[in-house]
């Protein structure tokens, strides 16, 4: 069983994960239009990953006998100032998601719902990875700067994401 408060908060997180997916798909189309097909593909994988996060939460709410309430997904940004700007926005967004997950963990403890707390630990660890990935890409893009050949090579590398 889920408390009403937790049920609401988990439903909000489902929406936040779908919003993230939407954001990354928007970034993907922007990168594609900038001729950065490899980075666009990387973002499409990110889009798929965020939908998996949403579905993990969705299935958990159902497993606990809760109700899934899918809310509208708000509009996302469509323009950035280049690849570095995209990945800086990604890091900022992932830091925000980390704060949402932390708030959910705090609420699960407050509600004495330890199965939800245990379930959320997967997301706690995932956020470390999400922030690290964005940070590493930002570092590389800064290193490359405006070197066209460097960007070409890095874009190819980004397209290899499994
Ligand atoms: Fe679902 Fe990128 O956090």
Entry summary:
With about 160 residues, this protein is mainly alpha-helical. Helices cover about 80% and strands about 0% of the residues.
Key phrases:
Ferritin; 0% strand; 162 residues; 78% helix; binds MU-OXO-diiron; mainly alpha; 5 helices
Characterise this structure:
With 162 residues, the protein is an all-alpha fold. It has a single domain (4-158), classed as Ferritin (Up-down Bundle). It is built from 5 helices and no strands. It has helices at residues 4-33, 37-63, 83-110, 114-144, 148-158. α1 (4-33) runs antiparallel to α2 (37-63) and α3 runs antiparallel to α4 (114-144). The chain is elongated and about 55 Å long. The mean pLDDT is 98. MU-OXO-diiron binds next to α1, α2 and α3.
Q: Round the Cα radius of gyration to an integer and report it.
A: 17 Å
Strand content: under 5%
Q: What CATH first level would be assigned?
A: Mainly Alpha
Which compounds are bound in this model?
A: MU-OXO-diiron
The biggest sheet amounts to: none
Which regions are unreliable across 5 or more consecutive residues at pLDDT < 50? none
Q: Count up the domains.
A: 1
């Amino acid at each position: 069983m889920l408390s009403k408060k937790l049920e609401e908060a988990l439903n909000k997180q489902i929406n936040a994960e779908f919003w993230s997916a939407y954001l990354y798909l928007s970034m993907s189309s922007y990168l594609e239009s900038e001729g950065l097909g490899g980075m666009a593909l990387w973002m499409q994988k990110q889009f798929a990953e965020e939908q998996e996060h949403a579905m993990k939460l969705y299935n958990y709410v159902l497993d606990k006998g809760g109700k899934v309430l899918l809310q509208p997904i708000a509009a996302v940004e469509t323009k950035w100032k280049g690849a570095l700007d995209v990945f800086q926005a990604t890091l900022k967004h992932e830091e925000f998601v980390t704060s949402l997950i932390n708030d959910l963990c705090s609420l699960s403890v407050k509600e004495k719902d330890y199965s939800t707390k245990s379930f959320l630990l997967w997301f706690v660890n995932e956020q470390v990875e999400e922030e690290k990935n964005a940070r590493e890409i930002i570092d590389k893009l800064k290193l490359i700067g405006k070197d066209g050949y460097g960007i070409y090579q890095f874009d190819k590398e980004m397209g290899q994401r499994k």
